[in-house]
User: Fold this.
Amino acid sequence: MRHNARPQMERTLILCKPDCMEKNLAGEVLGRFQKAGLQLVAAKMLRLTPALLDEHYAPLADKPFFPEIVSFMSSRPVLALILEGDQAVTRVRDLLGPTDSRKAPPGSIRGDLGTSNMLNIAHASDSVENAAIEVKRFFRSDEIPA
Ligand code: ADP
Assistant:
């Protein structure tokens, strides 16, 4: 028997960004995650406020492009998703590809659908710890099944 056979069930938070929504690609992005076996746990559209984005992107507050991210991310409603599966955090990040869409490989979501560093289709939590924080940031507890 394999030693690593026990699944590590995780939840992760995805935001289909304004470029994804404008290009009508939310279904394509969700479909790629679902085809990879990830389960959709919760979904909703919402318009992100600058206050929420200040919190969400706090680690980037010193970057010159920070005001542009806040303006971009609040420019139209986004689709927020919670996905669940074995090692969901890492698997979703792998399916997405690296931050800069121009450097993301063909076959990855950002590589196939993204445009640039900022216009990169979707956000995904980068650790199990941050996923738990981000799920609470974007969803009320009564919107999430137990
Ligand atoms: P990721 O979303 O891949 O985890 P980061 O947390 O480093 O990447 O950055 C958050 C978001 O900020 C990126 O997804 C992207 O939209 C934007 N961003 C990152 N780096 C740049 C950059 N050099 N220029 C413009 N926007 C950027």
